[in-house]
Protein backbone atom coordinates (compact mmCIF):
# COMPACT_ATOMS: atom_id res chain seq x y z
CA UNK A 1 0.00 0.00 0.00
CA UNK A 2 1.10 3.58 -0.57
CA UNK A 3 2.62 5.70 2.21
CA UNK A 4 -0.46 7.89 2.89
CA UNK A 5 -2.76 4.88 3.13
CA UNK A 6 -0.30 3.10 5.44
CA UNK A 7 -0.08 6.12 7.73
CA UNK A 8 -3.87 6.46 7.76
CA UNK A 9 -4.42 2.79 8.61
CA UNK A 10 -1.70 2.77 11.27
CA UNK A 11 -3.26 5.82 12.95
CA UNK A 12 -6.05 3.59 14.26
CA UNK A 13 -3.48 1.70 16.33
CA UNK A 14 -0.79 4.33 16.96
CA UNK A 15 -2.14 7.78 17.92
CA UNK A 16 1.26 9.51 17.52
CA UNK A 17 1.78 8.13 13.99
CA UNK A 18 1.97 11.66 12.52
CA UNK A 19 5.31 12.12 14.31
CA UNK A 20 6.83 8.97 12.80
CA UNK A 21 9.19 9.26 9.81
CA UNK A 22 8.22 8.01 6.34
CA UNK A 23 10.87 5.28 6.37
CA UNK A 24 9.58 3.95 9.71
CA UNK A 25 6.00 4.01 8.39
CA UNK A 26 7.06 1.86 5.42
CA UNK A 27 8.67 -0.68 7.76
CA UNK A 28 5.67 -0.71 10.09
CA UNK A 29 3.30 -1.23 7.15
CA UNK A 30 5.21 -4.41 6.31
CA UNK A 31 5.97 -5.70 9.78
CA UNK A 32 3.10 -4.51 11.95
CA UNK A 33 -0.10 -3.55 10.13
CA UNK A 34 -1.42 -7.07 9.48
CA UNK A 35 -0.46 -8.12 13.03
CA UNK A 36 -2.32 -5.14 14.50
CA UNK A 37 -5.44 -6.00 12.46
CA UNK A 38 -5.33 -9.60 13.71
CA UNK A 39 -5.04 -8.44 17.32
CA UNK A 40 -8.00 -6.10 16.75
CA UNK A 41 -10.13 -9.06 15.59
CA UNK A 42 -9.25 -10.77 18.88
CA UNK A 43 -10.22 -7.64 20.84
CA UNK A 44 -6.63 -6.96 21.88
CA UNK A 45 -5.33 -3.36 21.84
CA UNK A 46 -1.81 -2.40 20.73
CA UNK A 47 0.31 -1.63 23.79
CA UNK A 48 3.13 0.76 24.62
CA UNK A 49 5.08 1.50 27.80
CA UNK A 50 6.80 -0.95 30.12
CA UNK A 51 6.79 -4.62 29.12
CA UNK A 52 4.91 -6.97 31.46
CA UNK A 53 6.38 -10.12 32.96
CA UNK A 54 4.10 -12.15 30.70
CA UNK A 55 5.40 -10.33 27.60
CA UNK A 56 9.02 -10.83 28.67
CA UNK A 57 8.37 -14.57 28.99
CA UNK A 58 6.78 -14.60 25.52
CA UNK A 59 9.84 -12.87 24.03
CA UNK A 60 12.09 -15.41 25.73
CA UNK A 61 9.95 -18.25 24.35
CA UNK A 62 9.97 -16.75 20.83
CA UNK A 63 13.76 -16.34 20.84
CA UNK A 64 14.37 -19.87 22.17
CA UNK A 65 12.02 -21.38 19.58
CA UNK A 66 13.72 -19.46 16.76
CA UNK A 67 17.15 -20.66 17.91
CA UNK A 68 15.87 -24.22 18.00
CA UNK A 69 14.31 -23.84 14.53
CA UNK A 70 17.43 -22.42 12.86
CA UNK A 71 20.26 -24.05 14.80
CA UNK A 72 21.82 -20.65 15.66
CA UNK A 73 23.63 -21.44 18.90
CA UNK A 74 23.04 -18.32 20.98
CA UNK A 75 20.65 -15.40 21.43
CA UNK A 76 23.63 -13.03 21.28
CA UNK A 77 24.48 -14.27 17.78
CA UNK A 78 20.86 -13.90 16.71
CA UNK A 79 20.33 -10.40 18.09
CA UNK A 80 23.87 -8.97 17.85
CA UNK A 81 24.99 -10.51 14.58
CA UNK A 82 27.59 -7.79 13.89
CA UNK A 83 29.65 -9.13 16.81
CA UNK A 84 30.18 -12.35 14.84
CA UNK A 85 31.44 -11.29 11.38
CA UNK A 86 32.43 -14.84 10.41
CA UNK A 87 28.83 -16.07 10.90
CA UNK A 88 27.08 -12.92 9.70
CA UNK A 89 26.00 -14.10 6.22
CA UNK A 90 24.71 -17.46 7.44
CA UNK A 91 22.71 -15.89 10.28
CA UNK A 92 21.15 -13.27 7.96
CA UNK A 93 20.15 -16.01 5.52
CA UNK A 94 18.55 -18.12 8.27
CA UNK A 95 16.69 -15.10 9.66
CA UNK A 96 15.26 -14.34 6.20
CA UNK A 97 14.35 -17.95 5.40
CA UNK A 98 12.57 -18.53 8.72
CA UNK A 99 10.78 -15.16 8.95
CA UNK A 100 12.61 -13.73 11.94
CA UNK A 101 10.39 -10.61 12.19
CA UNK A 102 7.16 -12.60 12.39
CA UNK A 103 8.50 -15.23 14.77
CA UNK A 104 10.11 -12.84 17.27
CA UNK A 105 6.93 -10.76 17.64
CA UNK A 106 4.47 -13.65 17.83
CA UNK A 107 1.77 -13.19 20.49
CA UNK A 108 2.87 -9.67 21.52
CA UNK A 109 0.56 -6.73 20.59
CA UNK A 110 3.32 -4.13 20.21
CA UNK A 111 5.24 -2.61 17.29
CA UNK A 112 7.93 -4.99 16.05
CA UNK A 113 10.70 -2.46 16.63
CA UNK A 114 9.88 -2.19 20.37
CA UNK A 115 9.80 -5.99 20.71
CA UNK A 116 13.17 -6.27 18.95
CA UNK A 117 14.76 -3.61 21.19
CA UNK A 118 13.35 -5.30 24.28
CA UNK A 119 14.75 -8.67 23.16
CA UNK A 120 18.18 -7.08 22.61
CA UNK A 121 18.10 -5.57 26.08
CA UNK A 122 17.07 -8.88 27.68
CA UNK A 123 19.71 -11.00 25.92
CA UNK A 124 22.68 -8.62 25.79
CA UNK A 125 25.32 -9.96 28.23
CA UNK A 126 26.93 -6.51 28.17
CA UNK A 127 23.97 -5.10 30.10
CA UNK A 128 25.02 -6.90 33.28
CA UNK A 129 28.66 -5.99 33.76
CA UNK A 130 28.40 -3.94 36.95
CA UNK A 131 30.06 -0.63 37.83
CA UNK A 132 32.53 1.09 35.51
CA UNK A 133 36.17 0.99 36.63
CA UNK A 134 38.32 4.14 36.56
CA UNK A 135 40.14 2.70 33.53
CA UNK A 136 36.82 2.13 31.69
CA UNK A 137 35.71 5.70 32.37
CA UNK A 138 38.96 7.04 30.88
CA UNK A 139 38.53 4.78 27.84
CA UNK A 140 34.95 5.99 27.43
CA UNK A 141 36.07 9.64 27.40
CA UNK A 142 38.79 8.81 24.86
CA UNK A 143 36.41 6.90 22.54
CA UNK A 144 33.83 9.68 22.71
CA UNK A 145 36.52 12.21 21.71
CA UNK A 146 37.39 9.99 18.72
CA UNK A 147 33.90 8.89 17.61
CA UNK A 148 31.57 11.57 18.99
CA UNK A 149 28.16 10.26 20.08
CA UNK A 150 28.34 7.13 17.93
CA UNK A 151 27.26 4.98 20.88
CA UNK A 152 26.89 1.86 18.74
CA UNK A 153 30.57 2.02 17.77
CA UNK A 154 31.64 2.90 21.32
CA UNK A 155 29.52 0.11 22.81
CA UNK A 156 31.35 -2.41 20.61
CA UNK A 157 34.74 -1.05 21.69
CA UNK A 158 33.74 -1.04 25.37
CA UNK A 159 31.74 -4.33 25.33
CA UNK A 160 28.91 -2.47 27.03
CA UNK A 161 25.38 -1.76 25.77
CA UNK A 162 24.60 1.39 23.76
CA UNK A 163 22.40 2.79 26.52
CA UNK A 164 24.95 2.05 29.21
CA UNK A 165 27.82 3.92 27.53
CA UNK A 166 25.59 6.87 26.58
CA UNK A 167 24.27 7.31 30.11
CA UNK A 168 27.65 6.79 31.77
CA UNK A 169 29.27 9.39 29.52
CA UNK A 170 26.44 11.74 30.39
CA UNK A 171 27.41 11.35 34.06
CA UNK A 172 31.16 11.87 33.67
CA UNK A 173 31.48 14.37 30.81
CA UNK A 174 31.77 17.46 33.02
CA UNK A 175 32.43 18.45 36.64
CA UNK A 176 29.26 17.60 38.56
CA UNK A 177 28.04 19.16 41.77
CA UNK A 178 27.09 16.51 44.34
CA UNK A 179 26.14 18.86 47.16
CA UNK A 180 22.82 20.43 48.07
CA UNK A 181 20.97 22.10 45.20
CA UNK A 182 21.30 25.88 45.12
CA UNK A 183 18.32 28.15 44.39
CA UNK A 184 19.89 28.99 41.01
CA UNK A 185 20.25 25.30 40.06
CA UNK A 186 16.69 24.53 41.14
CA UNK A 187 15.36 27.42 39.08
CA UNK A 188 17.39 26.26 36.05
CA UNK A 189 15.89 22.79 36.44
CA UNK A 190 12.32 24.11 36.64
CA UNK A 191 12.90 26.35 33.61
CA UNK A 192 14.40 23.42 31.66
CA UNK A 193 11.43 21.15 32.44
CA UNK A 194 8.99 23.89 31.46
CA UNK A 195 10.88 24.45 28.21
CA UNK A 196 10.91 20.81 27.09
CA UNK A 197 7.22 20.34 27.93
CA UNK A 198 6.35 23.54 26.06
CA UNK A 199 8.28 22.27 23.03
CA UNK A 200 6.50 18.90 23.19
CA UNK A 201 3.09 20.56 23.51
CA UNK A 202 3.81 22.85 20.58
CA UNK A 203 4.30 19.74 18.42
CA UNK A 204 1.31 17.80 19.74
CA UNK A 205 -1.22 20.53 20.55
CA UNK A 206 -0.52 24.13 19.46
CA UNK A 207 -3.50 25.55 21.40
CA UNK A 208 -2.24 24.06 24.69
CA UNK A 209 1.20 25.49 23.99
CA UNK A 210 -0.34 28.93 23.51
CA UNK A 211 -2.08 28.82 26.89
CA UNK A 212 1.18 27.65 28.44
CA UNK A 213 3.03 30.62 26.94
CA UNK A 214 0.52 32.98 28.53
CA UNK A 215 0.81 31.47 32.02
CA UNK A 216 3.57 32.44 34.43
CA UNK A 217 2.03 30.95 37.55
CA UNK A 218 3.04 27.66 39.21
CA UNK A 219 0.23 25.40 37.91
CA UNK A 220 1.37 26.04 34.33
CA UNK A 221 0.44 22.60 33.13
CA UNK A 222 -1.80 19.80 34.35
CA UNK A 223 -0.34 17.40 36.86
CA UNK A 224 -0.33 14.32 34.64
CA UNK A 225 1.79 16.20 32.09
CA UNK A 226 4.28 17.04 34.81
CA UNK A 227 4.64 13.37 35.67
CA UNK A 228 5.28 12.25 32.08
CA UNK A 229 8.57 10.78 30.92
CA UNK A 230 10.94 13.64 30.19
CA UNK A 231 14.13 13.85 28.04
CA UNK A 232 16.52 13.94 30.99
CA UNK A 233 19.76 14.14 29.03
CA UNK A 234 18.43 17.27 27.32
CA UNK A 235 17.40 18.72 30.69
CA UNK A 236 20.84 17.84 32.09
CA UNK A 237 22.47 19.93 29.35
CA UNK A 238 20.26 22.92 30.17
CA UNK A 239 20.99 22.70 33.92
CA UNK A 240 24.73 22.30 33.32
CA UNK A 241 25.96 21.39 36.80
CA UNK A 242 24.07 18.14 37.45
CA UNK A 243 23.86 14.85 35.59
CA UNK A 244 20.53 13.49 34.34
CA UNK A 245 19.74 11.16 37.26
CA UNK A 246 20.20 13.97 39.78
CA UNK A 247 17.88 16.18 37.72
CA UNK A 248 15.23 13.46 37.62
CA UNK A 249 15.41 12.82 41.37
CA UNK A 250 15.27 16.52 42.20
CA UNK A 251 12.34 17.08 39.85
CA UNK A 252 10.39 14.21 41.42
CA UNK A 253 11.08 15.78 44.81
CA UNK A 254 9.86 19.20 43.63
CA UNK A 255 6.82 17.67 41.98
CA UNK A 256 5.83 15.64 45.03
CA UNK A 257 6.07 18.78 47.13
CA UNK A 258 3.91 20.74 44.65
CA UNK A 259 1.29 18.00 44.38
CA UNK A 260 0.82 17.48 48.10
CA UNK A 261 0.41 21.27 48.49
CA UNK A 262 1.52 21.01 52.08
CA UNK A 263 -0.90 18.23 52.99
CA UNK A 264 0.60 15.74 55.45
CA UNK A 265 -0.68 12.72 53.57
CA UNK A 266 1.58 10.17 55.17
CA UNK A 267 1.40 11.27 58.77
CA UNK A 268 -0.85 10.11 61.58
CA UNK A 269 -4.38 8.85 60.77
CA UNK A 270 -4.49 10.10 57.15
CA UNK A 271 -1.29 8.24 56.33
CA UNK A 272 -2.49 4.98 57.86
CA UNK A 273 -5.84 5.20 56.08
CA UNK A 274 -4.15 5.94 52.74
CA UNK A 275 -1.90 2.87 53.04
CA UNK A 276 -4.85 0.68 54.04
CA UNK A 277 -6.92 1.89 51.08
CA UNK A 278 -4.03 1.37 48.67
CA UNK A 279 -3.36 -2.22 49.81
CA UNK A 280 -7.07 -3.12 49.64
CA UNK A 281 -7.50 -1.66 46.16
CA UNK A 282 -4.39 -3.45 44.86
CA UNK A 283 -5.55 -6.76 46.35
CA UNK A 284 -8.99 -6.37 44.74
CA UNK A 285 -7.46 -6.01 41.26
CA UNK A 286 -6.06 -9.58 41.38
CA UNK A 287 -3.32 -8.34 39.04
CA UNK A 288 -0.39 -10.65 38.29
CA UNK A 289 1.85 -7.78 37.19
CA UNK A 290 2.16 -4.07 38.02
CA UNK A 291 1.43 -3.23 34.38
CA UNK A 292 -2.00 -4.85 34.66
CA UNK A 293 -3.06 -2.33 37.34
CA UNK A 294 -5.10 0.72 36.36
CA UNK A 295 -3.05 3.22 38.38
CA UNK A 296 -5.31 6.10 37.33
CA UNK A 297 -8.25 4.53 39.16
CA UNK A 298 -6.08 3.62 42.11
CA UNK A 299 -5.04 7.24 42.55
CA UNK A 300 -8.38 7.75 44.34
CA UNK A 301 -7.13 5.45 47.07
CA UNK A 302 -4.81 8.12 48.47
CA UNK A 303 -6.18 11.31 46.96
CA UNK A 304 -6.38 13.19 43.69
CA UNK A 305 -2.83 12.53 42.46
CA UNK A 306 -1.23 11.26 39.23
CA UNK A 307 -0.62 7.53 38.88
CA UNK A 308 3.17 7.90 39.00
CA UNK A 309 2.84 9.44 42.46
CA UNK A 310 0.66 6.53 43.62
CA UNK A 311 3.17 4.08 42.15
CA UNK A 312 5.99 5.74 44.07
CA UNK A 313 3.97 5.39 47.31
CA UNK A 314 3.44 1.69 46.56
CA UNK A 315 7.16 1.24 45.89
CA UNK A 316 8.04 2.75 49.27
CA UNK A 317 5.43 0.56 50.98
CA UNK A 318 6.76 -2.70 49.52
CA UNK A 319 10.42 -1.82 50.16
CA UNK A 320 9.78 -0.98 53.82
CA UNK A 321 7.22 -3.72 54.56
CA UNK A 322 7.93 -6.83 52.46
CA UNK A 323 11.02 -8.89 53.35
CA UNK A 324 13.02 -10.11 50.33
CA UNK A 325 10.60 -8.27 48.03
CA UNK A 326 13.02 -8.43 45.09
CA UNK A 327 12.68 -12.21 44.95
CA UNK A 328 8.86 -12.12 45.03
CA UNK A 329 6.41 -11.71 42.15
CA UNK A 330 4.04 -8.74 42.07
CA UNK A 331 1.08 -10.85 43.21
CA UNK A 332 3.13 -12.37 46.06
CA UNK A 333 4.03 -8.87 47.25
CA UNK A 334 0.37 -7.80 47.23
CA UNK A 335 -0.68 -10.99 49.06
CA UNK A 336 1.96 -10.37 51.73
CA UNK A 337 0.86 -6.75 52.21
CA UNK A 338 -2.79 -7.82 52.43
CA UNK A 339 -2.23 -10.76 54.81
CA UNK A 340 0.57 -9.39 57.01
CA UNK A 341 0.82 -5.61 56.75
CA UNK A 342 -2.88 -4.71 56.44
CA UNK A 343 -3.97 -6.18 59.83
CA UNK A 344 -1.05 -4.39 61.48
CA UNK A 345 -2.05 -1.04 59.92
CA UNK A 346 -5.74 -1.50 60.79
CA UNK A 347 -4.88 -2.27 64.40
CA UNK A 348 -2.68 0.81 64.52
CA UNK A 349 -5.47 2.94 63.04
Automatic annotation (TrEMBL):
It comes from the Eukaryota. GO terms for biological process: termination of RNA polymerase I transcription. Gene3D superfamilies: Homeodomain-like. It holds the Pfam family Myb_DNA-bind_6. GO terms for molecular function: chromatin binding. GO terms for cellular component: nucleolus. Signal peptide: none annotated. Residues 124-172, 173-255 form the Myb-like domain. This is TTF1 factor. The gene is Ttf1.
